[in-house]
Design goal:
about 325 residues, alpha+beta, 5-stranded antiparallel beta sheet
């Protein structure tokens, strides 16, 4: 429940619906029965082919300091901005940690077909499951595969989503998982948050023979009426799934979002409502405070050599040179 800003976003032109604001971060391919991690073997591959739709979003991203090198981006980035690299899974990486406030101009377009030809190496990684884990999930997946046939991948995905919509709930209060985490979630708890939904869903899909992976990042955003920009907070961190379907490539599936509204028992907003943010008039004050912080970032990020000279020009100090300026300001 961390409401500090992680990203600030200004759109130029069209703005996507909040439900389409998926800010892509690390893609997790490897699963050892307990933990999802990024692939250690696929990082050398180039970005795959993407057929774009006609929609394009032009935006500026301001990233708060972090110790990471992953640059979140609206799905899917058209290209890597200067100072970043586009990886094989369409994530953006920077050569050094984003340890200071940084600003990036980017464009994004939703895909029509995302890697429609799947290399065998990636397919094998996207189907791999460790032996001896989650036997009930594996059995259910094999049953669905037998009932839907070898070409029924989309039907298996929809069947899983119907199950989640009809039987599952969202809550932040969950017990610690045991050895068979997906089994416990799918058959016993039937309640959890995005980490549980995305992990169990991908395990179920892989057991059914459908290449799939976990994608992490942020989702949504809040429009600050003071300044007209969007704030994505740390508490907007999210995990969803991607499945690979013939003819379409990687397709985003968010099982957490499939939970029926009447089955959402405990949210971050519920917990925040009991605290300081619930006081009347606090939200506008917070909005103004963030707008002022953004203005400070504008000043700091834009204080380049040209603006420094413009500041000194009325004082007839621009010709002093480096030593002269050091002596002056030291004095």
């Amino acid at each position: 429940n961390d409401d500090r800003p992680a990203l600030r976003v200004t759109f130029f032109g069209d703005t996507p619906a909040t439900s389409q604001m998926y800010w892509r971060g690390p893609v997790l391919m490897d699963y050892d029965g307990r933990t999802w991690t990024r692939s250690r073997w696929l990082g050398h591959l180039p970005p795959p082919d993407v057929a774009r739709t006609g929609t394009t979003w032009d935006y500026q991203l301001e990233v708060e300091p972090t110790d990471r090198r992953t640059l979140p981006a609206l799905e899917l980035p058209d290209a890597a901005p200067g100072g970043a690299r586009l990886s094989w899974d369409y994530g953006l990486e920077t050569p050094t940690p984003l340890s200071a406030v940084s600003r990036w101009r980017m464009r994004a377009s939703p895909p029509r077909a995302f890697e429609p030809e799947l290399p065998q190496m990636i397919r094998q990684n996207a189907l791999r499951l460790p032996d001896g884990y989650n036997p009930r999930t594996v059995a259910l997946a094999r049953q669905w595969r037998a009932e839907n046939g070898p070409g029924g991948d989309a039907a298996v995905v929809e069947r899983a989503m119907r199950m989640i919509r009809g039987e599952f709930g969202y809550t932040l209060s969950t017990p610690l998982p045991g050895r068979h985490a997906a089994d416990e979630f799918l058959f016993d708890w039937k309640r959890g948050f995005c980490e549980h939904f995305s992990s169990a869903f991908v395990i179920l899909m892989r057991a059914a023979g459908i290449p799939s992976r976990v994608v992490t990042g942020y989702v949504g955003g809040y429009r600050n009426p003071f300044g007209g920009y969007w704030i994505v907070r740390n508490e907007d961190a999210h995990a969803w799934a991607e499945v690979w379907l013939d003819g379409r490539g990687w397709v985003r599936v968010d099982p957490t979002a499939a939970v029926a509204p009447e089955r959402i028992y405990d949210t971050l907003d519920d917990r925040a409502a009991a605290g300081f943010n619930a006081l009347p008039g606090v939200l506008p004050m917070l909005d103004i405070g963030d707008w002022l912080r953004r203005g400070w970032n504008d000043l700091v990020l834009g204080f380049d050599a040209t603006r420094q000279q413009a500041l000194l020009r009325p004082l007839v100090l621009e010709a002093l040179g480096t030593r002269g300026l050091v002596a002056l300001f030291a004095g």
